[in-house]
Write a structure and sequence with these properties.
Order of helices and strands: EHEEEEHEEEEHEEEEHEEHHH
Helix content: 10-25%
Strand order of the largest sheet: 6-7-8-5-9-12-11-10
Strand content: 35-45%
Number of strands: 15
Distance between the termini: 28 Å
CATH superfamily of the largest domain: 2,3-Dihydroxybiphenyl 1,2-Dioxygenase, domain 1
Number of domains: 2
Mean pLDDT: 95
Structural class: alpha+beta
Number of helices: 7
Radius of gyration: 19 Å
């Protein structure tokens, strides 16, 4: 099981968006859909899907959070033609953030925010080996600009099997970006690849709950550990969600949550749903009791 799973919040379009993404990227599929009833957002649909083997989850839960480019997803491609093909599938109806073309860092690259608001950086790898085709990338702007290095140092200290890879820094004369801040960095958490960068330009967005990261935990002790290490905004603690000191949202959940929330027994799903809705930090034992009807 993938330890960290990106979670996308949509108003009503989770299934529609997931269908677009699996059609755009080869080797992708929708793995499950589940409807939760009587939540604060009414009936919500959860869609689990894989893009080139990389797991995602999406939810239709109302117009409360808006996707923005503070988190984007790199799609690494073996050929320039693949870049163009995926671009042609994701770009219609969206907003181009960087035109598809040749750049110093790649002969074929483009950055687009699709019609649902999710941002994609589609890049030709130049023949380099691709270990992970889809890579989440954090853009530190506004009040957290300049904190990329601090954040990735912190996250790699919290999660196991983690390290910092390549760090490229801004130099002199690259204003408004400050010399020494991070132009781009790569790092791994639980062996999964991520990217991050600072940007001192003015941006009308920042990290929010529209993109969060599910952390699958095998034990209550593991849940307790990540909750203690990451949670920095008490008012954001709800239903396993927390927000860290950089404004990034995480969901600390039992690895068994998919099993607890699936199946053909709507009463059982409803019991588990009502149990977790009143929790801040999730309690595996109490969720299991709800599952069993105790």
């Amino acid at each position: 099981m993938q330890k960290i799973i990106p979670h996308l919040w949509f108003d009503k379009e989770a299934k529609e968006a997931a269908e677009l993404y699996v059609s755009a990227i080869p080797g992708s599929r929708i793995t499950s859909t589940t409807t939760l009833n009587n939540t604060p957002s009414g009936s919500t649909q959860i869609v689990s899907f894989e893009l080139a083997g990389y797991a995602f989850q999406a939810i239709s839960a109302g117009p409360y959070f808006k996707l923005n480019p503070s988190v984007s997803f790199h799609i690494k491609c073996q050929t320039k033609g693949e870049v163009d093909t995926i671009w042609e599938r994701l770009a219609p109806g969206g907003q181009v953030l960087m035109e598809l073309g040749s750049y110093p860092f790649s002969e074929r690259y483009g950055w687009v925010q699709d019609k649902y608001g999710l941002s994609w950086q589609i890049i030709y790898s130049g023949g380099a080996e691709i270990k992970q085709k889809i890579t989440p990338a954090f853009l530190f702007v506004g009040g957290v600009c300049g904190k990329t290095e601090e954040a990735i140092n912190y996250w790699t200290s919290v999660f196991s099997d983690s390290n910092i890879g390549h760090v490229m820094r801004y130099g002199k004369g690259e204003e408004p970006d400050k010399e020494g801040t991070v132009e781009y960095a790569t790092f791994t958490l639980f062996g999964q690849e991520f990217g991050a960068m600072d940007s001192a330009y003015e941006h009308a967005f920042g990290f929010n709950e529209a993109i969060s990261f599910l952390v699958n935990c095998d034990t209550q002790e593991e849940i307790d550990h990540y909750w203690r290490k990451l949670s920095a905004v008490p008012e954001a603690e709800q239903c396993g969600w927390l927000k860290d000191k950089y404004g990034v949202s995480w969901q600390i959940v039992p690895a068994s949550m998919g099993k607890l929330m699936s199946g053909d027994d709507p009463d059982r799903i409803q019991r588990v749903t009502q149990a977790f809705l009143v929790m801040k930090k999730l309690d595996i034992a109490k969720l299991q009791e709800a599952y069993e009807g105790k």
